[in-house]
Amino acid sequence: MNSEIIKVSNLVTQFGPNKIHDGVSITIGSGEIYGILGGSGSGKSTLLKEMILLLRPESGEISFFGQNILTMNSASLTKLRQQWGVLFQGGALYTSLTVTENIAVQLKEYSDLPAALIYDIVQMKINMVGLPQHAGSLYPSELSGGMVKRVALARALAMDPVLLFLDEPTSGLDPVSANMFDQLILDLRDMLGLTIVMVTHDLESIKTTVDRFCVLGEKKVIAEGSLEDVLINPHPWVKQFFTGKRGQTRN
What we know:
It contains 10 helices and 10 strands. The protein is an alpha/beta fold. It has a domain at 1-82 and 206-251: P-loop containing nucleotide triphosphate hydrolases (Rossmann fold), CATH 3.40.50.
């Protein structure tokens, strides 16, 4: 594995009497595509939200570049947030803004770049994610599901982040579109040198795109490593996930 860039240590998450995580620990190397896998209710998206500071755990540490983000001051956090991009499961596009305007939001908010340069950057991002140039004038309601994902990805890349967080990036896509999106993620990682963290339950993504992944279960990490590592002596849930009838039909 490359040098460690993200480390989660002994994370505990609790909502009222319901404990979601009880000592979750993972490490993510620079340049990896790292997956977060688990059954329904295992806390996959909750863990991702904690990593991007939308939720706060009860205890534990989340370190980026060797610094615990849970104890950072607001100025340092603002600077750090500009180093990551996020693609939410449903895209989370602003419905009243065009594609160009959606992608430009962060550039307008966090930079002093002139409008003409922002427009040029947005056009570059549109091209980077494989969208036609005319898509910039469209509104979210005029986009297919696959196009929404690509626009959301372009927006996540607007500030040239070094970290990219993806929540179920292929959910709702047909198999051909999902495969194309997986390839896009691989291409962008290699082209931009990104470290990518993705919540997924897509078997094909795990098999073809992810370098390493963790499996959440029983409020802890029940497996972590490459697919080959995890399947050497699999936890019963992991074995069922990969070798059950649904898993076998997608081999």
